[in-house]
Please model this.
Amino acid sequence: MDTVDSAAWEISKALAGKAVLVTGAGSGIGAAVAVQAACAGASVALVGRRVEALEETAALVRLAGGERARVAVLPWDVRADGGADALVGAAIDRLGRIDGLVNNAGVARFAPLESAASEDLDAMLDTHVRGPVALIRACLPALREHRGSVVNVSSVGGALAMPGRSLYGASKAALNSLTRSLARELAPDVRVNAVLPGPVETPMYDDLGLDGPATTALRAGLLAGTPMGRFGTPDEVAHWVCALLDAERSAWVTGVLLPVDGGRTA
Model:
């Protein structure tokens, strides 16, 4: 956890009294969002497939939020067929409300078109499109009641050409399009934005479907194409997610696809 970012959110208490549901909360950007939201005063519902990882994040949330911190651990796979309504109902039962939804769960499978597996495309579309659609729909009554916010964690891969990673990029481009369309459709009651990270140091790079040398070459190429000369951190992305959740400072911001990418899209 980035102590500078955490201190800033602790001072601001920008999300005091709010409740935020975060998917993919067991590690990486999702865990960082949960911790920073708690620092800003929010209650947090943690969603993911791995119970142990969610419990580790929950411990960090309680540490960040102190005695006032309220956290719900809700194991669920966003690729599941059905169950979104029950999940959201459980979150509201535990936290009393939902003001923000962060669709952060992600899966990456990289391969040239000739060798890309159809099941990998299905997994990415289920995670990046169908899952967020189901959760936004399930959260919509609560979000409308509280004039809440949706933040989709997409990728610059949805905005750039991605040879060798075209199916991943296509799934993120679909999420970007969903973000902009729903921003208009759900306004003015619900704001919908997306953060587009560039290369960020997360466990994703351990599970790309590539062998060791191919992963090393991929990382070297990403680094070479990033003007800031380094990978980002989960905290750096989480800062902007939490800023977009803030109903005061971002009250007039919707339909934005915000690159947080070290200059890759410049």
The CA atoms of residues 47 and 74 lie 5 Å apart.
